[in-house]
Specification:
244 residues; mainly alpha
């Protein structure tokens, strides 16, 4: 529900601690390697698209349009991660993974796509840049981990850059949702009013406000979880397997 799914919040996604002793079989591993390579390449395409658009325009305003299609495609492609957990080839929580993935998909489609007026907001670029950097690192991390050849630099980046990227992404998400509120209220987007045959009402404007408020308890939990993970991994206090 909360769009805490900034790339940074999802830095906590699929983290595996020392409890994980067994990985997937050879076929599942091969599939996961291909999936992570494709996703890494996809987010690299988004990064290159942002840089090229910036160089062509000479401004960071309106860069969202240059990467809108690949962003939607690869962010939606992350839904497969929920399936990976459900079938057991990735031993992460289905509920936690589903929450984090769906929150980012929600922000992509139900906010940024649906309220086109916010696409020019600088806040959109803020969370897109945070997502892009984090996802390139995250998917690279999983790829090299699955191949049992993880460079320290990637491990360090995964457990360090979130310190800046997480707050940056969350700020962008919150400001984008906030910018969408007047347009949602004016148009009645996704709202259902009474009377209707289902005797049910839904106010999307209020839902977005609740979503913003939900960041208050969720953000600190995920952030400090990653701080603890950083201490374990980079402090060499635990011996992680290749599926960490």
């Amino acid at each position: 529900m909360a769009a805490l799914a900034t790339g940074t919040s999802r830095t906590a996604h699929n983290d595996v601690g020392p409890r994980r002793k067994k990985g997937p079989g050879a076929l599942a591993t091969a599939y996961l390697v291909i999936y992570n390579v494709v996703m890494t390449a996809g987010w690299l395409v988004i990064a290159v698209g942002l840089v090229r658009a910036y160089l062509a325009k000479g401004s960071y305003h309106g860069l969202f349009y240059s990467i809108e299609k690949p962003l939607k495609f690869f962010q939606t492609g992350a839904l497969l991660e929920v399936l990976h957990c459900a079938v057991g080839i990735v031993p992460s929580s289905v509920v936690l993974t589903g929450f984090q993935v769906m929150s980012r998909v929600f922000l992509t489609w139900a906010v940024t796509h649906s309220v086109r007026e916010v696409q020019n907001e600088d806040s959109v670029l803020l969370f897109v840049v945070a997502w892009t950097i984090t996802e390139i690192i995250r998917y690279s991390f999983y790829t090299f981990s699955l191949l049992n050849h993880l460079p320290y630099l990637i491990k360090w980046a995964r457990y360090t850059l979130f310190i800046v990227l997480y707050p940056m992404g969350v700020t962008g998400e919150l400001l984008t949702i906030y910018a969408a509120l007047p347009f949602v209220q004016k148009t009645g987007l996704y709202s259902i009013t009474l009377p209707n045959k289902y005797n049910f009402s839904f106010d999307y404007h209020s839902f977005l406000i609740v979503t913003m408020v939900s960041y208050i308890p969720i953000f600190p939990q995920l952030y400090f979880h990653m701080m603890r993970q950083r201490k374990k991994v980079l402090g060499h206090l635990a011996d992680y397997s290749k599926f960490e």
